[in-house]
Amino acid sequence: MTIDSLPGSSGYLDSYPGRRITYFSNGYILGLTAVAGIGGLLFGYDTGVISGALLYIKDDFEVVGQSSFLQETIVSMALVGAMIGAAAGGWINDAYGRKKATLLADIVFTIGAIVMAAAPNPYVLIAGRLLVGLGVGVASVTAPVYIAEASPSEIRGGLVSTNVLMITGGQFLSYLVNLAFTEVPGTWRWMLGVSGVPSVIQFSLMLFLPESPRWLYLKGNKSQAISVLSKIYDPERLEDEIDQLAAAAEEERQRKNAVRYRDVFKSKEMRLAFLAGAGLQAFQQFTGINTVMYYSPTIVQMAGFHSNQLALLLSLIVAAMNAAGTIVGIYLIDHVGRRKLALSSLSGVFVSLVILSGSFYMHSSGSGSGLYGWLAVLGLALYIACFSPGMGPVPWAVNSEIYPEAYRGICGGMSATINWISNLIVAQSFLSVATAVGTGATFLILAGVAVVAFVFVIVFLPETKGLTFEEVDQLWKERARGHSRGEGLLEDQDDNEAQ
């Protein structure tokens, strides 16, 4: 069986153009996406707010100001919690459902926000950061999967990318909050404590939303699943979706044992899928997004601007560019496709990193008469413009759709954990590497990583634009049987897209 023979395939839907659903055509799906995406908002806000809050934490706790280790621990403890939360979140999703996982993440995050805001000493603050990280980790796994499983295949990429927009929006919001509370007593406590508000809102709204229809159906709650699906699809399309779910449920029944982590590596198709998903998550971090964001104030100073207020304004502008680029990605991901979008994004990332490397080399040699500063600003703008529509949303969209139902939570959790681990590695090593070999050479190393990532996408990532979950499963099975069969299948896809 090839993907074109499956009900609901791209070719099948082309015969019934009236069945296609557009991004804004169904308010119910958008509502589910928006509420689930609050988890992305928490993700983005927490990663952005700590940089501003730390300045005031050092003033309140003298021991923090005297210890770079404590400062690093306060920042990185949330990453540690996120790694643990993401690893556990996959199992929680599969065992208890996407809705309960989201509610649990909200509870843990809210408790963490309260602990941080009320912390009498830096050690309690660190405990609060760990709790917040746990909540963010679970949410980073759950939100993309919940959105993907409720999404029609033709707009799934855009809807999952909306969660990434919420992440970048959360970062932008964190900079606004940092600015708003600079003159308020208890500055950092407000900055960190207010993060509990979105989690309370999401918890309240999530109580009224349904569980993922796919999870419900495969767990035997067919009537509830069909009730949810009927709000998404017209009656004729609904029948096709139920047929596909029935086939997936039958496959689940034939599986004698519950899926365990080691099962991911037993079959070739699962190894191929996990390699593609986890590799994308790792390359998202190792191509340097967080280091470029970290160096943005330095880049502006190189251009001859030294005002602190201007540096803060730059942070807002960069965050706004990141969010705007994600909006572009929401459109492109279901029109251009995941693979082409990732490749074009990585091409631009490579060029921009070379420009940044060259500008820092000129700066360190004292040449360029100030031109290097503006060159660095150009590299920064180009990097954000190229990264945000592609390598920002693509890894999360791909990981929400490339695994079979039984593996989706576990594999999504494992790949998200790799994202967080890669994030921590880059955060802990970048300054050391930059000190050892120079900032220009470090950006050049990141450009080399972008080249490796480009080759990785060409070799290991098939196009999944517009495919149902069942079609994606079939795609991996075809690729596992032999590279030539997989290539033929992809060529069929490209022919269908061209038509």
Explain the overall architecture.
The chain is mostly helical. 78% of the residues lie in helices and 0% in strands. The longest helix is centred in the last third of the chain and has 33 residues. It is globular, with a radius of gyration of 23 Å. The N terminus and C terminus are likely disordered.
Q: What separation lies between the terminal Cα atoms? A: 21 Å
Low-confidence stretches: 1-12, 484-499
**Can you count the beta strands?**
0
Strand content: under 5%
Question: Major sheet: size, sense and barrel closure?
Answer: none
Rg of Cα set: 23 Å
How is the topology of this model organized?
Elements: H1 10-14, H2 27-36, H3 38-60, H4 62-66, H5 68-96, H6 98-118, H7 122-149, H8 156-180, H9 187-193, H10 196-206, H11 213-218, H12 222-229, H13 235-254, H14 268-286, H15 289-294, H16 296-302, H17 308-332, H18 338-365, H19 371-387, H20 394-399, H21 405-437, H22 439-460, H23 469-481, H24 483-498
What is the structure about, briefly put?
The chain has 24 helices and no strands.
Task: For the structure shown, list the relevant keywords.
mainly alpha, 499 residues, 78% helix
